[in-house]
Specification:
CATH topology: Rossmann fold
CATH superfamily: Alpha/Beta hydrolase fold, catalytic domain
Organism: Gemmata palustris
Radius of gyration: 20 Å
Number of domains: 1
Strand content: 15-25%
InterPro entries: AB_hydrolase_fold, GCE-like_dom
Oligomer: single chain
Protein name: Acetylxylan esterase
Structural class: alpha/beta
Keywords: Hydrolase, Serine esterase, Signal
Largest sheet: 10 strands, mixed
Pfam family, one: GCE_fung
Length: 425
Protein backbone atom coordinates (compact mmCIF):
# COMPACT_ATOMS: atom_id res chain seq x y z
CA UNK A 1 0.00 0.00 0.00
CA UNK A 2 1.53 3.30 -1.10
CA UNK A 3 0.66 6.93 -0.39
CA UNK A 4 2.41 10.00 -1.77
CA UNK A 5 3.00 12.89 0.61
CA UNK A 6 2.64 15.21 -2.37
CA UNK A 7 -1.11 15.04 -1.83
CA UNK A 8 -0.61 16.40 1.68
CA UNK A 9 1.04 19.60 0.44
CA UNK A 10 -1.72 21.94 1.59
CA UNK A 11 -1.80 20.35 5.03
CA UNK A 12 1.97 20.48 5.47
CA UNK A 13 2.57 23.89 3.95
CA UNK A 14 -0.20 25.44 6.06
CA UNK A 15 2.27 25.68 8.97
CA UNK A 16 4.59 27.96 6.98
CA UNK A 17 3.32 31.49 7.46
CA UNK A 18 6.42 33.13 8.85
CA UNK A 19 5.96 36.40 10.78
CA UNK A 20 8.80 38.82 10.09
CA UNK A 21 11.49 39.67 12.60
CA UNK A 22 11.09 37.05 15.30
CA UNK A 23 13.31 38.46 18.07
CA UNK A 24 15.53 36.40 20.39
CA UNK A 25 13.82 35.32 23.63
CA UNK A 26 15.38 38.03 25.80
CA UNK A 27 14.07 40.76 23.48
CA UNK A 28 10.42 39.66 23.69
CA UNK A 29 7.93 41.68 25.75
CA UNK A 30 6.88 40.35 29.14
CA UNK A 31 3.27 39.17 29.60
CA UNK A 32 2.41 38.06 33.12
CA UNK A 33 -0.77 36.07 32.45
CA UNK A 34 -1.81 33.74 29.64
CA UNK A 35 -1.66 35.87 26.46
CA UNK A 36 -4.94 36.62 24.73
CA UNK A 37 -5.30 33.90 22.14
CA UNK A 38 -7.18 36.26 19.80
CA UNK A 39 -4.51 38.98 19.76
CA UNK A 40 -1.70 38.72 17.21
CA UNK A 41 1.90 39.77 17.86
CA UNK A 42 1.33 43.14 16.17
CA UNK A 43 -1.75 43.82 18.31
CA UNK A 44 -4.32 42.90 15.67
CA UNK A 45 -7.54 41.61 17.24
CA UNK A 46 -9.04 38.48 15.69
CA UNK A 47 -12.83 38.63 15.48
CA UNK A 48 -13.77 36.08 12.80
CA UNK A 49 -13.14 32.45 11.95
CA UNK A 50 -11.68 33.56 8.62
CA UNK A 51 -9.04 35.78 10.24
CA UNK A 52 -8.29 33.11 12.82
CA UNK A 53 -7.61 30.49 10.14
CA UNK A 54 -5.74 32.79 7.74
CA UNK A 55 -3.78 34.95 10.20
CA UNK A 56 -3.59 33.94 13.86
CA UNK A 57 -3.52 30.16 13.55
CA UNK A 58 -0.56 30.16 11.10
CA UNK A 59 1.24 32.73 13.25
CA UNK A 60 0.83 30.60 16.36
CA UNK A 61 2.13 27.54 14.53
CA UNK A 62 5.19 29.49 13.50
CA UNK A 63 5.77 30.71 17.06
CA UNK A 64 5.50 27.21 18.54
CA UNK A 65 8.03 25.95 16.00
CA UNK A 66 10.50 28.78 16.45
CA UNK A 67 10.38 29.15 20.22
CA UNK A 68 9.45 25.71 21.57
CA UNK A 69 9.27 22.48 19.55
CA UNK A 70 11.52 23.26 16.61
CA UNK A 71 10.74 23.15 12.92
CA UNK A 72 8.12 20.82 11.54
CA UNK A 73 10.42 18.53 9.54
CA UNK A 74 10.73 18.30 5.78
CA UNK A 75 8.25 21.06 5.00
CA UNK A 76 9.46 21.70 1.50
CA UNK A 77 11.83 18.87 0.61
CA UNK A 78 11.09 16.14 0.04
CA UNK A 79 7.36 16.54 -0.74
CA UNK A 80 7.02 13.49 -2.96
CA UNK A 81 8.02 10.87 -0.42
CA UNK A 82 5.96 7.69 -0.76
CA UNK A 83 4.64 5.94 2.34
CA UNK A 84 4.53 2.16 1.96
CA UNK A 85 2.76 -0.26 4.28
CA UNK A 86 3.80 -3.92 4.46
CA UNK A 87 1.76 -6.27 6.65
CA UNK A 88 4.15 -8.36 8.78
CA UNK A 89 1.45 -10.61 10.23
CA UNK A 90 -2.33 -10.66 10.61
CA UNK A 91 -4.43 -12.62 13.09
CA UNK A 92 -8.12 -12.37 12.19
CA UNK A 93 -9.19 -14.39 15.24
CA UNK A 94 -7.55 -12.28 17.92
CA UNK A 95 -9.29 -11.09 21.08
CA UNK A 96 -11.47 -14.21 21.37
CA UNK A 97 -12.42 -13.85 17.72
CA UNK A 98 -13.76 -10.32 18.17
CA UNK A 99 -10.99 -8.52 16.34
CA UNK A 100 -7.97 -8.61 14.09
CA UNK A 101 -4.43 -7.91 15.26
CA UNK A 102 -1.72 -7.06 12.79
CA UNK A 103 1.56 -5.25 12.55
CA UNK A 104 2.44 -3.07 9.59
CA UNK A 105 5.92 -1.96 8.59
CA UNK A 106 5.55 1.64 7.40
CA UNK A 107 8.50 2.74 5.30
CA UNK A 108 9.37 5.70 3.11
CA UNK A 109 10.91 6.22 -0.29
CA UNK A 110 13.55 8.26 1.52
CA UNK A 111 15.83 5.34 2.36
CA UNK A 112 17.59 7.18 5.20
CA UNK A 113 14.37 7.51 7.21
CA UNK A 114 13.73 4.79 9.82
CA UNK A 115 10.66 2.60 9.51
CA UNK A 116 7.62 2.79 11.77
CA UNK A 117 6.14 -0.46 13.05
CA UNK A 118 2.43 0.12 13.53
CA UNK A 119 0.51 -2.34 15.71
CA UNK A 120 -3.17 -2.22 14.72
CA UNK A 121 -6.07 -3.86 16.56
CA UNK A 122 -9.48 -3.50 14.93
CA UNK A 123 -12.91 -4.98 15.60
CA UNK A 124 -14.10 -7.56 13.10
CA UNK A 125 -16.99 -6.40 10.92
CA UNK A 126 -17.74 -4.72 7.65
CA UNK A 127 -17.93 -1.12 8.86
CA UNK A 128 -14.69 0.89 9.21
CA UNK A 129 -14.00 1.75 12.84
CA UNK A 130 -13.05 4.95 14.60
CA UNK A 131 -9.42 4.62 15.66
CA UNK A 132 -7.18 5.78 18.49
CA UNK A 133 -3.60 6.39 17.32
CA UNK A 134 -0.48 7.31 19.23
CA UNK A 135 3.04 6.36 20.27
CA UNK A 136 3.98 4.02 23.10
CA UNK A 137 7.05 4.14 25.35
CA UNK A 138 8.81 0.79 25.15
CA UNK A 139 7.69 -1.15 22.10
CA UNK A 140 4.61 -2.86 20.68
CA UNK A 141 5.65 -6.20 22.20
CA UNK A 142 4.98 -4.83 25.69
CA UNK A 143 1.28 -4.49 24.84
CA UNK A 144 0.51 -8.10 23.90
CA UNK A 145 1.83 -11.58 24.66
CA UNK A 146 1.67 -12.48 20.96
CA UNK A 147 5.03 -13.81 19.82
CA UNK A 148 4.32 -12.50 16.33
CA UNK A 149 4.77 -8.87 17.37
CA UNK A 150 8.17 -7.43 16.57
CA UNK A 151 10.63 -6.55 19.33
CA UNK A 152 12.16 -3.13 18.55
CA UNK A 153 15.81 -2.92 17.58
CA UNK A 154 16.22 0.79 18.32
CA UNK A 155 17.60 2.03 21.67
CA UNK A 156 15.06 1.59 24.51
CA UNK A 157 15.26 3.14 28.02
CA UNK A 158 16.55 0.66 30.59
CA UNK A 159 13.51 0.94 32.89
CA UNK A 160 11.14 -0.96 30.57
CA UNK A 161 10.45 -4.69 31.06
CA UNK A 162 12.85 -7.04 29.34
CA UNK A 163 15.41 -4.38 28.37
CA UNK A 164 19.04 -5.51 28.72
CA UNK A 165 20.94 -3.30 31.13
CA UNK A 166 23.96 -1.66 29.58
CA UNK A 167 22.96 -2.35 25.98
CA UNK A 168 19.45 -0.85 26.11
CA UNK A 169 18.17 -3.58 23.82
CA UNK A 170 14.58 -4.76 24.13
CA UNK A 171 14.02 -8.51 24.42
CA UNK A 172 11.11 -10.93 24.15
CA UNK A 173 11.09 -11.18 27.95
CA UNK A 174 9.02 -7.99 27.95
CA UNK A 175 6.13 -9.42 25.93
CA UNK A 176 2.77 -8.42 27.38
CA UNK A 177 4.28 -6.84 30.51
CA UNK A 178 2.58 -3.44 29.99
CA UNK A 179 -0.63 -4.53 28.28
CA UNK A 180 -2.74 -2.39 30.63
CA UNK A 181 -1.33 0.86 29.21
CA UNK A 182 -2.89 0.16 25.79
CA UNK A 183 -5.63 -2.41 26.60
CA UNK A 184 -6.18 -3.64 23.05
CA UNK A 185 -8.98 -6.11 23.73
CA UNK A 186 -10.92 -3.64 25.87
CA UNK A 187 -10.75 -1.07 23.08
CA UNK A 188 -11.75 -3.52 20.36
CA UNK A 189 -14.70 -4.83 22.39
CA UNK A 190 -16.03 -1.27 22.59
CA UNK A 191 -16.05 -1.10 18.79
CA UNK A 192 -12.92 1.03 18.37
CA UNK A 193 -9.68 0.33 16.58
CA UNK A 194 -6.29 1.29 17.99
CA UNK A 195 -2.94 1.85 16.27
CA UNK A 196 0.30 2.42 18.14
CA UNK A 197 4.05 2.43 17.51
CA UNK A 198 7.21 2.66 19.58
CA UNK A 199 8.22 6.33 19.79
CA UNK A 200 11.87 5.28 19.46
CA UNK A 201 11.16 3.98 15.95
CA UNK A 202 11.12 7.66 15.00
CA UNK A 203 13.44 9.12 17.62
CA UNK A 204 14.89 7.34 20.66
CA UNK A 205 14.41 9.35 23.85
CA UNK A 206 18.00 10.38 24.47
CA UNK A 207 19.97 13.51 23.50
CA UNK A 208 23.16 14.03 21.55
CA UNK A 209 23.10 10.85 19.47
CA UNK A 210 22.67 11.03 15.70
CA UNK A 211 20.06 8.32 15.37
CA UNK A 212 16.47 8.00 14.21
CA UNK A 213 15.10 10.99 12.35
CA UNK A 214 17.65 13.29 14.01
CA UNK A 215 20.26 11.64 11.80
CA UNK A 216 18.50 13.09 8.73
CA UNK A 217 19.32 16.67 9.80
CA UNK A 218 22.41 18.49 8.52
CA UNK A 219 25.55 18.23 10.67
CA UNK A 220 26.55 21.52 12.34
CA UNK A 221 30.00 21.89 13.88
CA UNK A 222 28.87 24.50 16.41
CA UNK A 223 25.49 23.02 17.25
CA UNK A 224 22.27 23.15 15.28
CA UNK A 225 19.90 26.07 14.71
CA UNK A 226 18.13 27.43 17.77
CA UNK A 227 14.86 26.18 16.30
CA UNK A 228 16.10 22.81 15.05
CA UNK A 229 13.50 20.03 15.12
CA UNK A 230 13.36 18.63 18.67
CA UNK A 231 12.27 15.22 19.90
CA UNK A 232 8.63 15.98 20.77
CA UNK A 233 8.17 17.45 17.29
CA UNK A 234 9.76 14.35 15.75
CA UNK A 235 7.34 12.14 17.66
CA UNK A 236 4.40 14.27 16.52
CA UNK A 237 5.66 14.01 12.95
CA UNK A 238 5.75 10.23 13.45
CA UNK A 239 2.08 10.31 14.47
CA UNK A 240 1.31 12.08 11.21
CA UNK A 241 3.14 9.42 9.23
CA UNK A 242 1.09 6.77 11.04
CA UNK A 243 -2.02 8.70 10.02
CA UNK A 244 -0.74 8.68 6.41
CA UNK A 245 -1.10 4.91 6.48
CA UNK A 246 -4.31 4.74 8.50
CA UNK A 247 -6.26 6.95 6.09
CA UNK A 248 -5.61 4.30 3.41
CA UNK A 249 -6.65 1.36 5.64
CA UNK A 250 -10.14 0.10 4.75
CA UNK A 251 -10.76 -1.15 8.30
CA UNK A 252 -10.27 2.39 9.68
CA UNK A 253 -12.60 5.36 9.30
CA UNK A 254 -10.22 8.11 8.16
CA UNK A 255 -12.57 10.82 9.42
CA UNK A 256 -12.75 9.42 12.95
CA UNK A 257 -9.19 9.41 14.25
CA UNK A 258 -8.27 10.31 17.83
CA UNK A 259 -4.65 10.88 18.88
CA UNK A 260 -3.69 9.68 22.38
CA UNK A 261 -0.50 9.87 24.40
CA UNK A 262 0.62 9.78 28.03
CA UNK A 263 3.07 12.10 29.80
CA UNK A 264 5.80 13.18 27.33
CA UNK A 265 3.83 11.36 24.66
CA UNK A 266 0.79 13.36 25.83
CA UNK A 267 2.78 16.45 24.87
CA UNK A 268 3.30 14.70 21.56
CA UNK A 269 -0.40 13.97 21.13
CA UNK A 270 -1.37 17.61 21.66
CA UNK A 271 1.24 18.85 19.21
CA UNK A 272 0.30 16.19 16.67
CA UNK A 273 -3.36 17.15 16.90
CA UNK A 274 -2.63 20.85 16.56
CA UNK A 275 -0.52 20.34 13.42
CA UNK A 276 -2.74 17.85 11.56
CA UNK A 277 -6.40 18.56 10.81
CA UNK A 278 -6.99 14.95 9.80
CA UNK A 279 -7.03 14.11 13.51
CA UNK A 280 -10.61 14.54 14.74
CA UNK A 281 -10.15 14.28 18.53
CA UNK A 282 -7.10 15.11 20.67
CA UNK A 283 -6.42 13.40 24.02
CA UNK A 284 -3.18 14.41 25.78
CA UNK A 285 -3.19 12.39 29.02
CA UNK A 286 -1.32 13.85 32.02
CA UNK A 287 0.86 15.83 29.61
CA UNK A 288 2.04 18.51 32.07
CA UNK A 289 4.68 21.14 31.33
CA UNK A 290 5.41 21.38 27.64
CA UNK A 291 2.04 19.79 26.92
CA UNK A 292 -1.32 20.98 28.23
CA UNK A 293 0.19 22.45 31.41
CA UNK A 294 0.80 26.20 31.25
CA UNK A 295 4.38 27.47 31.25
CA UNK A 296 3.19 30.38 33.39
CA UNK A 297 2.21 28.10 36.25
CA UNK A 298 0.45 29.13 39.44
CA UNK A 299 0.88 25.66 40.92
CA UNK A 300 4.05 25.48 43.03
CA UNK A 301 3.95 21.67 42.87
CA UNK A 302 3.96 21.60 39.06
CA UNK A 303 7.05 20.96 36.95
CA UNK A 304 8.53 24.29 35.81
CA UNK A 305 10.01 25.13 32.42
CA UNK A 306 13.51 25.52 33.83
CA UNK A 307 13.52 22.03 35.28
CA UNK A 308 12.10 20.25 32.22
CA UNK A 309 14.45 21.99 29.80
CA UNK A 310 17.43 21.20 32.03
CA UNK A 311 16.66 17.50 32.52
CA UNK A 312 15.19 16.87 29.05
CA UNK A 313 16.76 19.50 26.78
CA UNK A 314 16.26 17.35 23.66
CA UNK A 315 12.47 17.44 23.93
CA UNK A 316 12.40 21.12 22.95
CA UNK A 317 14.44 23.40 20.73
CA UNK A 318 17.24 25.57 22.16
CA UNK A 319 15.08 28.69 22.11
CA UNK A 320 12.70 27.25 24.71
CA UNK A 321 15.50 26.68 27.21
CA UNK A 322 16.11 30.44 27.23
CA UNK A 323 12.73 31.00 28.92
CA UNK A 324 13.58 28.97 32.02
CA UNK A 325 14.25 32.01 34.19
CA UNK A 326 11.41 34.14 32.82
CA UNK A 327 8.39 32.40 31.33
CA UNK A 328 6.56 35.72 31.00
CA UNK A 329 8.55 36.34 27.81
CA UNK A 330 7.14 33.30 26.01
CA UNK A 331 4.99 34.85 23.26
CA UNK A 332 2.24 32.24 23.76
CA UNK A 333 1.27 29.62 26.27
CA UNK A 334 -0.14 26.12 25.98
CA UNK A 335 -3.74 27.32 25.66
CA UNK A 336 -2.74 28.55 22.20
CA UNK A 337 -1.75 25.00 21.18
CA UNK A 338 -5.17 23.76 22.31
CA UNK A 339 -6.78 26.67 20.43
CA UNK A 340 -5.04 25.67 17.18
CA UNK A 341 -7.06 22.43 17.39
CA UNK A 342 -10.37 24.35 17.17
CA UNK A 343 -13.08 23.40 16.47
CA UNK A 344 -12.02 19.79 17.09
CA UNK A 345 -12.68 18.31 20.56
CA UNK A 346 -9.78 18.16 23.03
CA UNK A 347 -9.88 16.15 26.27
CA UNK A 348 -7.40 16.88 29.08
CA UNK A 349 -7.20 14.02 31.60
CA UNK A 350 -5.32 14.09 34.90
CA UNK A 351 -4.85 12.50 38.33
CA UNK A 352 -5.21 14.21 41.69
CA UNK A 353 -1.88 12.99 43.07
CA UNK A 354 -0.06 13.99 39.89
CA UNK A 355 0.38 17.67 40.70
CA UNK A 356 3.66 17.60 38.73
CA UNK A 357 1.46 17.57 35.60
CA UNK A 358 -0.48 20.61 36.90
CA UNK A 359 -4.15 19.50 36.72
CA UNK A 360 -5.52 22.88 37.83
CA UNK A 361 -3.31 24.72 35.36
CA UNK A 362 -4.57 22.50 32.57
CA UNK A 363 -8.13 23.54 33.34
CA UNK A 364 -7.00 27.18 33.09
CA UNK A 365 -5.55 26.33 29.68
CA UNK A 366 -8.94 25.08 28.46
CA UNK A 367 -10.64 28.24 29.70
CA UNK A 368 -8.09 30.46 27.95
CA UNK A 369 -8.44 28.48 24.68
CA UNK A 370 -12.23 28.83 24.61
CA UNK A 371 -12.37 32.16 22.68
CA UNK A 372 -10.98 30.43 19.57
CA UNK A 373 -13.68 27.77 19.78
CA UNK A 374 -16.36 30.43 20.13
CA UNK A 375 -15.36 31.76 16.70
CA UNK A 376 -16.79 28.48 15.34
CA UNK A 377 -20.16 29.06 16.97
CA UNK A 378 -19.72 27.03 20.16
CA UNK A 379 -20.82 29.54 22.76
CA UNK A 380 -19.92 27.30 25.70
CA UNK A 381 -17.08 24.99 24.63
CA UNK A 382 -15.94 24.06 28.15
CA UNK A 383 -17.10 23.70 31.75
CA UNK A 384 -17.33 26.76 34.02
CA UNK A 385 -15.50 25.01 36.86
CA UNK A 386 -13.38 21.93 37.42
CA UNK A 387 -15.69 18.89 37.47
CA UNK A 388 -15.83 16.65 40.50
CA UNK A 389 -13.21 13.95 40.74
CA UNK A 390 -14.22 10.94 38.63
CA UNK A 391 -16.79 12.91 36.58
CA UNK A 392 -16.13 13.51 32.89
CA UNK A 393 -16.86 16.93 31.45
CA UNK A 394 -17.50 15.86 27.85
CA UNK A 395 -17.72 19.35 26.38
CA UNK A 396 -15.79 20.14 23.20
CA UNK A 397 -13.03 21.30 25.55
CA UNK A 398 -13.30 18.31 27.88
CA UNK A 399 -11.74 17.66 31.26
CA UNK A 400 -11.41 14.73 33.63
CA UNK A 401 -9.53 14.19 36.87
CA UNK A 402 -9.39 10.96 38.86
CA UNK A 403 -7.84 9.79 42.08
CA UNK A 404 -4.41 8.22 41.84
CA UNK A 405 -1.03 8.87 40.30
CA UNK A 406 0.79 9.43 37.04
CA UNK A 407 -0.13 6.44 34.86
CA UNK A 408 -2.29 5.34 31.92
CA UNK A 409 -4.70 2.58 32.89
CA UNK A 410 -7.70 0.65 31.52
CA UNK A 411 -9.93 2.97 33.58
CA UNK A 412 -8.42 5.96 31.79
CA UNK A 413 -9.23 4.28 28.49
CA UNK A 414 -12.86 3.96 29.59
CA UNK A 415 -12.90 7.76 29.88
CA UNK A 416 -11.17 8.21 26.50
CA UNK A 417 -13.82 6.01 24.89
CA UNK A 418 -16.66 7.73 26.74
CA UNK A 419 -15.45 11.03 25.26
CA UNK A 420 -15.08 9.41 21.83
CA UNK A 421 -18.61 8.00 22.10
CA UNK A 422 -19.86 11.58 22.05
CA UNK A 423 -17.56 13.07 19.46
CA UNK A 424 -16.65 10.20 17.13
CA UNK A 425 -19.91 8.23 17.01
Amino acid sequence: MRLSLAGLGILIMSVVATPADLPPPDKLPSVAGLPDVLTMRDGTKITSKKDWEEKQRPELKELFQHYMYGRYPHLVEPVKVVVTGKVLFEDAKAFDGKGTLREVEVSFSEASWPKIYLLIAAPNGSAPAACFVGPNFGGNHLLTASDKVRVPTAWVPANYPGVEKGTNKATAAGRGKQADTWPLQQIVEKGYAVATFYCGDIQPDRPNVREGMRATLPVHKDGGPIDETATVMWWAWGCHRAVDFLVTDKSIDAKRLAVVGHSRLGKTALLAGAFDDRIAVVIPHQSGCGGAGPSRSKNEKAEPVKRITTVFPHWFCANFTAFGDDTTKIPFDQHALVAICAPRPVLLTNAEDDQWANPSGQFDVLTAAAPAYKLYGDTKPGADKVPEQGTLSADRLGYFIRAGKHSMTPDDWKVFMQFADKWLK
